[in-house]
């Protein structure tokens, strides 16, 4: 039996599935300062809202690709390689122009995803305590925050992220960024955020980004977000 060519197989798949298959399977990062953090839960922990296959591809291929490219770009730049990723992003203007775009895209992707995995794996619900009070004070309450957050995510043209940022005094704000940009580039800290690149949801939701945004709240780990809020107020929140 004649086997179909790889090109023919890819041509018959949705665009996102084809992209996923074209990525290296769990490519290993070269020696470097940055590494792929493990998922803090099993890939199927967010089902049925986010499927295990999406989690495996998103984490093991997409995030790993950002780490690999970042380490490659930094291998001849020892001083930059020594910086934590949040400091590297805050100093983008000091990065040589020849590698600045590569660092922007891949350090941003690494930072965004390193934040993203731990704030999931929960059971949703409603935040309480100081975090809940801050959401009411700064974002108009939990229901309004969800509505505004979902609208911002759905309205982000192309690929990008929607974030809630947190200042040292605990003040919250809602913002979006294109591609793998992050508020860390502007000296701000991220409390939590959601990835609206198609690779985050396409296998399950296809082009229904609003459905994905609505479903995502069912897997938020509010205990972890509350820990990030406390760390931000203490000045110890990293990425």
TrEMBL record:
Q: SUPFAM superfamilies, per this entry?
A: Fe,Mn superoxide dismutase (SOD), C-terminal domain, Fe,Mn superoxide dismutase (SOD), N-terminal domain
Q: Which UniProt keywords apply?
A: Metal-binding, Oxidoreductase, Signal
Region (Disordered) residue ranges read 27-47
Q: Which reaction does it catalyse?
A: 2 superoxide + 2 H(+) = H2O2 + O2
Per the UniProt entry, the signal peptide is 1-27
Function in brief? Destroys radicals which are normally produced within the cells and which are toxic to biological systems.
Q: Which top-level enzyme class is recorded in the Swiss-Prot or TrEMBL entry?
A: oxidoreductase
Protein name per UniProt: Superoxide dismutase
The record's section on InterPro entries has: Mn/Fe_SOD (IPR001189), Mn/Fe_SOD_BS (IPR019833), Mn/Fe_SOD_C (IPR019832), Mn/Fe_SOD_N (IPR019831), Mn/Fe_SOD_N_sf (IPR036324), SOD_C_sf (IPR036314), TAT_signal (IPR006311)
So what EC number does this one have?
Answer: 1.15.1.1
Q: What residue stretches are annotated with the Manganese/iron superoxide dismutase N-terminal domain?
A: 34-120
Please list the residue ranges annotated as the Manganese/iron superoxide dismutase C-terminal domain. Answer: 127-228
Coiled-coil annotated residue ranges, if any: none
Q: What are the GO cellular component annotations?
A: cytoplasm
Into which family does the record put it? Belongs to the iron/manganese superoxide dismutase family.
TM annotation in the entry: none
Which residues does the annotation say bind Mn(2+)?
A: 58, 113, 195, 199
């Amino acid at each position: 039996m004649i086997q179909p060519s790889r090109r023919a197989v890819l041509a018959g798949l949705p665009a996102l599935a084809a992209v996923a298959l074209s990525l290296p399977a769990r490519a290993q990062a070269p020696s470097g300062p940055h590494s792929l953090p493990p998922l803090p839960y099993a890939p199927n922990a967010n089902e049925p809202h986010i499927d295990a296959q999406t989690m495996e591809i998103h984490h093991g291929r997409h995030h790993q690709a950002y780490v690999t490219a970042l380490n490659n770009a930094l291998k001849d730049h020892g001083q930059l390689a020594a910086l934590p990723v949040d400091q590297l992003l805050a100093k983008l203007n000091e990065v040589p122009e020849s590698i600045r775009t590569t660092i922007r895209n891949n350090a941003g992707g690494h930072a965004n995803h390193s934040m993203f995995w731990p704030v999931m794996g929960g059971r949703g619900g409603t935040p309480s305590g100081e975090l809940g009070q801050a959401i009411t004070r700064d974002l108009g309450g939990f229901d309004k925050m969800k509505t505004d957050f979902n609208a911002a995510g759905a309205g982000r043209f192309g690929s990008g992220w929607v974030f809630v940022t947190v200042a040292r005094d605990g003040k919250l704000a809602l913002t979006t960024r294109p591609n793998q940009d992050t508020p860390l580039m502007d000296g701000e800290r991220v409390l939590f955020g959601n990835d609206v690149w198609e690779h985050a949801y396409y296998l399950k939701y296809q082009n229904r980004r609003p459905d994905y945004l609505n479903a995502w709240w069912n897997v938020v780990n509010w205990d972890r977000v509350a820990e990030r809020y406390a760390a931000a107020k203490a000045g110890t929140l990293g990425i």
